[in-house]
Amino acid sequence: MALALCAASFVGCKEEAPYVCEGLEGDIYVKFGGTGTTDTRLLVTTDGYIGETYAVSVTYDMYTNADEWQIVPDYSECYDPEHKWIESWPSEGNYDGRFTLNFQANSKQGDTRFAKVNIVSHGQIIQTINIEQDKAPITQFYIQPFLQKQTFTASGVYEDGVNAGKAVVKTIPLDSNVAWSARVDDDANGDPVDWIVVSGVTKAKFDISVAPNTTGEERKGTITVYQNTNGNNNIVVTVEQAA
Question: Do β-strands 149-152 and 97-103 pair in parallel, antiparallel, or remain unpaired?
Answer without folding.
Answer: unpaired
